[in-house]
Structure formats: structure tokens, C-alpha cells
Amino acid sequence: PTSFYRFTGDAELYDTLERGHASLLSKVLRPWQQKFPDVEVIEASRCGSAAQVLVNDSRDASLVVVGRHIRTGAFGAHIGHVTHSALHHITAPVAVVAHS
């Protein structure tokens, strides 16, 4: 099983960073929650590798949705490491949604 790496520095600094990320997440989600009040949202902010946290936190998921940027590269669809990890390590269905 994959697990994310715990911050090895000062525990107080870790807690401060975690609270800051949670606050930023709430601020970013607020307009969307107001626009779509019937959609249930569970806010969860985690520190660590995004790919590892996503894999760990999706163990009981029915569907995982990840995004990918639309790139104008020469060949094929390009995905980042988080989407790549999701496709290879998450057991639930994974939907990859392109966005600009």
C-alpha cells in the first residue's frame, strides 16, 4: 500500500501549514458551494505528495475525477504525475477531465 510521507520537521510548523492550506481550500470552494448549494462537499486538506494523498484517500471511492491541462504538444494527450498515479494505482474508476 502507498502512504504519504509525514512532514519530518517541526510539528508546530506542520500544523500551521496544514491550517493555512485548509483555510485556502475553504476560500477557493466557497463561490462554488454558493453556486451549487445542493452538491455535498467534504473539505479535506492534506500535506504531502498530491499523488500519494489522492491514492490513499480514494480507497473507498466509487469514482475519482482528476483534471489535466490541455496541452498543444506534438503527440498524444499529456498527463501529469498525479493523473498518472491515479490511473495506475487507484482501484476505483478514474475519470480524466481536460481543462484549460
Q: Helical amount among residues, as a percent range?
A: 40-55%
- In total, the number of strands is 2
Tell me the Rg in angstroms. Answer: 16 Å
**How many helical stretches?**
3
Description:
This protein is of the alpha+beta class. It has 2 domains: 1-47; 49-100, no CATH class. Helices cover 42% and strands 12% of the residues. The protein is built from 3 helices and 2 strands. The protein has helices spanning 11-35, 50-57, 81-89, and strands at 64-69, 94-99. It has a two-stranded parallel ribbon. Strand 1 (64-69), helix 3 (81-89) and strand 2 (94-99) form a beta-alpha-beta unit. The radius of gyration is 16 Å and the shape is globular.
Characteristic terms for this protein:
alpha+beta, 3 helices, single chain, 42% helix, 100 residues, two-stranded parallel ribbon, 2 domains
Provide a compact summary of the structure.
This protein is α+β, with helices and mostly antiparallel strands. The chain is built from three helices and two strands, in the order H-H-E-H-E. Helix 3 (81-89) links the parallel strand 1 and strand 2 (94-99).
